[in-house]
Amino acid sequence: MTSSPTQGIKTVLHPVSDLAKAKEVYAALLGVQPQADAPYYVGFEAAGQHIGLVPGGGPQGMTSPVTYWHVPDIEAKLAEVTAAGATVKEPAHDVGGGRLVATFTDLDGNVLGLLQDR
């Protein structure tokens, strides 16, 4: 395995059906107000973690939480996990500000994410 090491899980996105109500629950749970608050996404920073709320699962159709491993080279890590048997679900793409995300499924169909900041 030749790609750069994974830096760890720092981001977890949760699909929600009612963004306003979910925002209240997560604010109470985390003890902080959201740092990003838009009709399409609400994001919290708490204890070194980013917790995101995605209404209706977003364009990627999330049906369960997705954990995102932060990596220095998303394309290299995607190549490494697919060589090991994973299947790309959502290729690497820019979601704004130079941040790249991708998702893949493991052999059991679990959806996992990769995130690279520029």
UniProtKB/TrEMBL annotation:
Top-level taxon in the UniProt lineage: Bacteria
InterPro entries linked: Anthracycline_SecMetBiosynth, Glyas_Bleomycin-R_OHBP_Dase, Glyas_Fos-R_dOase_dom, VOC_core
Signal peptide extent: none
Domain VOC, residue spans: 8-117
Protein name as annotated: Glyoxalase
